Amino acid sequence: MRDFRDAKAMAKTLREALNAKSLALTTSESQELVARILGFRAWNVLAARIQSTEMPASSVQAYAPISAEMSVPLVPMRDMVLFPHMISRIFVAREKTRQAVEHALAGDRRVVIVAQRSASDDRPSTADALHSVGVMANVVDRQTQVDGALKVTVCGLQRTGIIRITDGEFLAAEAKAIGEQGGQSEEAAALSSAVLDAYQTYTDADFSALPSGSKARFSMPSVGDPSQLADTVAALLSVSIEQKQQLLETSDVVPRLKRLIEIMSAGRPKAVA
């Protein structure tokens, strides 16, 4: 069975199938469609996920769950909430954040990524300036841009509570993993199907033009882990940072799935003219 690593081949198959039905797609259009079908918000995010699986073990490490408090470099984000299992490319310009990334790369590559309470704060360095729940993440890759900023690829690992913050050469957090509840319950399994149905309605996805033999391949993936499903969908929603932060802070999977259904039932926010 194909998975996200076969995305390029899937995009080609989709483009050829639709062309046969006189529905022309460009390569980039078919790639973007496949990315959304596989649960990624854009092709570049999916491409980063594929890249991370192709890197050597020295670049992408497998980590045991965090069971005790530990000090980790801290990366504040102005306008993004990272979720577990989510791969994203972020841009880093602030010097302390650059130093945090470099320190992580020189060590075990782990950072804590957390959303700022105010996007206008250029120096968020206290507990009041940052949310108390973020995500432990792996720094997969970083590239220096022409303007000196870093383009950093990160992969979310697990929900993490921030206990205290240290402000030195770079920000660091005393952090501890947050356990999840309810993910293996029958209610969570039933809600997972409802979330998938709601997501197809929310995105107005229409696969009716696909040949019958391809519909199963290109339909929304069935994620066996309700917690992972909830986080995957939460990252794709067009909602505010505050709403995404609330979803991140909801460690019980059942209420998180219910909240997702409520949000998607309300529909996409209206664009302002």
What attributes does this structure have?
273 residues; alpha+beta; Archaeosine Trna-guanine Transglycosylase, Chain: A, domain 4; five-stranded mixed beta barrel
Q: What is this structure, in a nutshell?
A:
With 273 residues, the protein is an alpha+beta fold.
Describe the structure.
The chain is built from 9 helices and 6 strands; from the N terminus they run αααββαββββααααα. By secondary structure, it is α+β, with helices and mostly antiparallel strands. It has 3 domains: 4-54; 70-177, LON domain-like (Archaeosine Trna-guanine Transglycosylase, Chain: A, domain 4, Roll), CATH 2.30.130.40; 186-265, Methane Monooxygenase Hydroxylase, Chain G, domain 1 (Up-down Bundle), CATH 1.20.58. The protein has a 5-stranded mixed beta barrel.
CATH topology of the largest domain: Archaeosine Trna-guanine Transglycosylase, Chain: A, domain 4
Backbone structural class: alpha+beta
Q: What's the number of extended β-strand segments?
A: 6
Tally of helical segments: 9
Ends apart, CA distance between termini? 44 Å
**Strand fraction:** 15-25%
Regarding quaternary structure, what we see is single chain
Largest sheet: 5 strands, mixed, barrel
